Every structure is written in C-alpha cells, then in structure tokens.
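thread: overnight batch results

M.L. [08:02]
morning all. the overnight job finished for the chain we discussed friday. pasting input first so we're all looking at the same thing
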Amino acid sequence: MLCSCPYDGQPRDTKGGTECLGTAVFHVADGNLDDLDLSDVDFGFYNHFPSNLSSGNWKVGLIVDSAASDEQAEALERILSGREGGPFGQLSQFYGEYLGMERARVSLTDGGSPGLKVEGRTELSYEPLTGPDGSSTKIKNAMFGFASEFEVGRTTGRSNAFGLSYEASYGETADYVFSSEETEGASHGRV
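M.L. [08:03]
and the structure it wrote out:
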C-alpha cells in the first residue's frame, strides 16, 4: 500500500508493474517569483517514473489553473522546470522528458471528501490511513518528499493527462514551504 518512491525504492503500480504514474496538485497560499505574486494559484504536476527515482528518465508535465495569469503560469513553469533552483532545481537532474504546460481549471478540496480535480483530466478523492489510535499515518524525513513530514492514504479516481493514464490507489498530503533561496522568497501551500 505505501509507495516506495519517497525512499528511492523500486515503484510498483497496482497492476504489479514497476513504474509510477502520479499527479501532485499544489495550492500556493502565499508566494512570489521575483516581484510576481503567485498567491492563490493552483497547479498540477504530472509524473511518470519508469524506475526508482534516482535512476532518472522521468516524464513530467504541468497544468496551471486557468484562473492564473499567463505571467503566473510562465513563472510556475520556470520554477517546476528547475530553472529557478531550489528543490525543483535539484529534482530536474532526473527529468528525461518535459511533456509541456497546459491550462485547465485546477482545484484542491478539503472537508468531507478531500481530493483534487484537474478539469477534463484528473479527479481523485483521498482518505488518510490511520494507526491504532485513530490518528493519520505520517512519514518523516523521506529522501524524496515535498515536505519533511507528510500524511499517507488511499486515493480513488482516474487521471489521463499528457498521455499518462492511471487508476489511483495511493496518496500523500502535506503543508510545505518552498524556496529557491535559504530564507527568502518562500512559497507556502498545500500539496
């Protein structure tokens, strides 16, 4: 049930294969690139990992919410491509093929049935795994995690974007802080 990607293990999909297809949807609660405000922008980051993460040759694509300006979309593309440094600058060494950027309505939902939706492409619902005491299951200090601690759970739904199609089974959620500099320019949000 738990994904092995965060600790650089061999991925396994639900059909017993050894690849990982996924979607990470982010909400920028507060952030900027240079003087451009990125607050309240949502985007989806799609991946195909053909093997363990450090083996590289990833396929990645970006969908920026249609409510964002063209300037905001271009700024996010610069960040996610790794050109602005920071965590995505480090991850970009593993990219094999960039699948491009598209625009569509992107949203995260909280409440009764948390999940995400990328219009016409992805719709997933999320339920946390819980421990014996009823609290959510969390992973800390993973090699490949967007946050130093994240919650894990089950997802249901489907995704089909950039030619990457899958039925969901696993999910992660976390608050995160991203910065291409050590102390300035951090973007805060939820993935």
